[in-house]
Amino acid sequence: MNHNIVGRSHTRIRPPRKVLSSSIDVEKSWDVLRKAIEEIQQKNASKLSFEELYRRAYNLVLHKHGKFLYDRIEKQIRDYLRDTVRVKLLEKLKDTSSDDRQFLLEINSLWEDHLLSMRMISDVLMYLDRVYAKESHLPLIYDVGLNAFKDSVVKYNDHEIGKEVIRIVLEFLNQSRHGIIVDKFVIKAIIYMLESLTETVNIDVSKVTGSTSYGENYYLHYFEPKLLISGHEYFQSKVKELIDQHSGVLYIEKIVQLIQEEEARIQMYLPEASGPKMVELMDNDLITQNLEFIMMLETDGLNSWIADSNYTILGQLFKLISRVDSDHEMLRRRLRAIILSNGNELSQNVKQSVESTLAKKREEEEKRKQIAKSHGKKLVIRHKSGKEQTTLYAIKWIESFLELKNKYDDILSKSFEMDVGLSEEIQAGFSTLINTSERSEEYLSLFIDNCIRKSLKNKGSEEIDRTLNDCICVFRFIKDKDVFEKYNRNHLAKRLLQQKSLSNEIEMNMITKFKQEIGSSFTARLDGMFKDIKISQEMSSEFNNKFARQGPKETAVGSKIRAANNDRKLEFDFSILTPSFWPMPINKTMENVILPPELQVLQDSGQEFYDTKHKGRNLTWAPNFGTVDIRMYYPGKSYEVNMSTLSAIIILSCFNNDDSDTKEVSFEKILEATGIPEQELKRHLQSISVASRTRLLKKIPMSRDIHAGDHFKINNQFKSPHTRIKVLTVASASHVENDVERNGTLEVIRKSRIVETQAAIVRVMKARRELKHEELLNEVIKQLINRFKPQPSFIKEQIEDLIDKEYLKRDEGNRSVYQYLA
Amino acid sequence: MSDSDLEEPSPYVTLISSDGYTFQITREAAMVSGTLKGMLNTSFQESSTSTIKLHELDSQLLEKVVEYLYYNLKYKDNVNIPEFDIPTEMALELLVAADFLDV
């Protein structure tokens, strides 16, 4: 009652009744309380008067007998526990008719009785708690009771009972791990009891905080360490048992189940603070320590799960690893290794598959040969050239790469929950795979070439789109984009000139996708090439419409053309190419080629036609590209032969006279008559006089190579099952370059890199005027990254070169700063 | 404590002073005192009879105590509280009683 008592001096304050009265009979009061406690422990409290007991304790405390009372009570409780409760428990232990569970039940029931007694005792002794214990910073009576139970029962005589309890509980937990049904409730209750037995009541802390600190308890101090040891032993034995089976799938399935069960157990029995320790121990034993070993199992490990796309196991694996490491380091490490080894296998497999395909073909051909032989015929078989074989390899390689990539994408979405870190790891793995594989840029370009020429034929637009997207997906991984561009432009040029694309739509589609991926600077030249071809087609058809007309509307030029071709129709398709878009250089030597009249007329008319359309433009004719269709009359049969323009020039200039049937023409004569450069001439002669299926001419003497002094004549024995024949000089399909070509290409690329890098440096410096070395490097790399990744040392060389050329100079005060010189 | 709920339906308890006067007060009011609460909530004699004999308090004092129990109950959540009148001559006795009853 905290109310002001306003003193009124005229009234006398009555003294409280008993405060000053004579001292009380201490021993008698204690005796009453002692007996009451005994009664309470015998569960006879209802006969007792709370008020009386409270009053006696109150008076004892009031008369400064608090310590006396407190100590007596503590001793009373301790003695009771030691001499009654403990003895009962020991008897129970000795009792052979009682089992472990009954012992636990007994201790639990004694414990609960004790708690109930203590609550009542401490209620009655409220005043002692409130006044004496608090002021003396001693534990409350209730806690004295708990401590007493711990000291006089559980820990008494070197934990005689405590050790039994721990042993039994751990045994029960182990039994439950092995599927034996145990009494959950008693285990739970006992663990709860152990947790309630406070180990150290920190008096010092209580002084500060005003409340008792319950840090350590019997559970944490004695039980938990043993629990963890027993858990560790269990997990270890389980791991050993599973590892001995050498089955990763089994291991994963079993430990997923084991973890589930153990977590249920933890949830069920263990206190909140203890659960995570057990989980950590379990995760460490089952996952951190052993899972990587399991993943590395050869026959039934991560490698084979990925190979089999075993999404279930991979998903479980992912979840397990997520438990211990949100970065999945272990998984990333293994994935990296596996993707790289996949890369090696990929090359091996592709090689084998190409070889076996070819071997099969050869076998079939061999059979056919045998059959033909048995019929007395000789069958000449053209083997796939080494070039075609490597091209097949290139296409297969990209296909396999895409398959592999798709496989990992599926795994990522179906098993790895689209985890960002793992996705990055996979991307990085594939990037390394493709950039360490030689010629991947060329392979990709060949793959695209093959798609647009053949494999996308009759495919739905969805499938086409998917394939093109796949191409972009590979393209994305490629670091040296300029190398790819080089090849792609070559291949596109061939497709466009030979009209080998399945459709312009697909070509445009592909170009658009490149544009979306890295911008229009990459595709500007591709667009230009495409436009050239389109305009050329329109122009050619206009030309042909105009001059192929017969009858009254026939033009002068038209009749001239017809006259040149023995009064037969002659069509002319030409392609006007802008040199800077196209990969092939202008070949000046071709200007010396002497055209036969038929072709000369076409070229002149074409030139004239073009000049009327575009005045002042310079055309350079390139007869080394393009083809001519010629109808050739052989004894008994005529053939329509498609051949390169240069081959046609040879035939038309030298073998199209009346006496051509028998006349022999020397190599030198042909050289003189056609003006074709010697190397080119040899190549084309070879294709029409040596190649087995298109031996239009007969070479004397007969040998593989063309030499000066060789003679040629029309091959009157020429026979072919087909009426339409194609002479293959310009290889019809794009192929993998040989090493010499490859080095040439790389050299071209190296040069263009120098130009591009220097251009980038100049651009940056022009804009910034003055820049530090590091910043300049960063800017240049940023500008070039879509083309290739320049090495700093390479950029540095180019900077040096530009300083020599006086585009830049070093700052005199600070050598690491460059200045732009206008 | 479902047992005691059944045994103690009465919302009233009886307090008996040392000089034999009885005071019937609501259980709620009695609960204001920690000591009385303890007596009524544990399974001692008092809880089964709902009767508490207070040897320490005479009727005069107990009456004032009861008055305070109700006063406390009524205003415990309020901010503006009227002053509780304490007769000066009783002040010390009340102080002791308050200590005894834990109010």
From TrEMBL, chain A:
Q: Which UniProt keywords apply?
A: Isopeptide bond, Ubl conjugation
Q: Which InterPro entries match?
A: Cullin, Cullin-like_AB, Cullin_CS, Cullin_homology, Cullin_homology_sf, Cullin_N, Cullin_neddylation_domain, Cullin_repeat-like_dom_sf
GO process terms (BP): ubiquitin-dependent protein catabolic process
Q: Extract the GO molecular function terms from the UniProt entry.
A: ubiquitin protein ligase binding
Coiled-coil residues: none
Q: Ubl conjugation as a keyword?
A: yes
SMART domains, per the entry: CULLIN, Cullin_Nedd8
Q: What is this protein called?
A: DEBR0S2_18360g1_1
Record organism? Dekkera bruxellensis
UniProtKB/TrEMBL annotation, chain B:
Q: Name one GO cellular component term.
A: nucleus
Please tell me where this protein is predominantly located: nucleus
Coding gene? ELC1
Organism (species): Dekkera bruxellensis
Q: Tell me, what's a Pfam family for it?
A: Skp1_POZ
Family from the record? Belongs to the SKP1 family.
**Does the keyword section mention Nucleus?**
yes
Protein name as annotated: Elongin-C
Note the CDD domains from the entry: BTB_POZ_EloC
Ranges for domain SKP1 component POZ: 12-73
Q: Which Gene3D superfamilies match?
A: Potassium Channel Kv1.1, Chain A
Query: Lineage in the entry?
Result: Eukaryota, Fungi, Dikarya, Ascomycota, Saccharomycotina
On the tree of life, the source organism's domain of life is: Eukaryota
Q: Which GO terms describe its biological process?
A: ubiquitin-dependent protein catabolic process
Protein location: Nucleus
Keywords, A to Z, come to: Nucleus
InterPro entries on file: ELC1 (IPR039948), SKP1-like (IPR001232), SKP1/BTB/POZ_sf (IPR011333), Skp1_comp_POZ (IPR016073)
